[in-house]
Amino acid sequence: MRVAGVDLAVVRPSAIAVLDGCELAAYLSAMELEDIVSSLSPYRPAVVAIDAPLSRPEGWLRDVERELLRLGYRLLPPLMGPMARLTERGMRLAQMLGNAIEVHPKTSLKAMGLEPGLIYSRYRPPTKDHFDAVLAALTALAYLKGLYRSIGPFVLPLASPCQYT
After folding, report:
1. pLDDT by residue (tens digit) across 31-80?
2. pLDDT above 80: residue 137
């Protein structure tokens, strides 16, 4: 099960983590959306988890933000300040990829019951953005294993897809 996580950015390169099952396959970085797609192409991930909103709200918040707030998680509104550009970029990337899901790494970390130290020691991400990309990829793996709940376009993992000893 090969998956990828993308910590999408607007003004700096986006961080990408590719997992082959629970093992790290690659860390990548790319600035342009086309470069993200082409850098993922050789890995052919079954699912790409994107850390960005993949839809616009009709008002200020989408149902996913309301539900996650109710559950005790916090996400920024998709159209608040710089989030508007990230949302547009995320929607375009998802359309280009065709196999994308929306995730939020901090929420995934908490929902999977994982500690940051475990992720750093196991996957040795070179940057904080790659740390988030690993969490996104783990969420994609949870999605493939059926360990998730969908809230609109958003995927909330219900458990860690990997056993760590």
Report:
1. 999 999 999 999 999 999 999 998 766 777 778 878 888 888 877 766 66
2. yes
Question: In Å, how far are 2, 28, 74 from 47, measured between CA atoms?
Answer: 8, 16, 24
Superfamily of domain 2-157: Ribonuclease H-like superfamily/Ribonuclease H (3.30.420.10)
Q: Which residues contact 140 (CB under 8 A, 6 or more apart)?
A: 3, 4, 5, 19, 45, 46, 47, 48, 49, 101, 103, 155
Q: Which residue, chain included where needed, has tokens 């995730």?
A: 103
- pTM beyond cutoff 0.85: yes
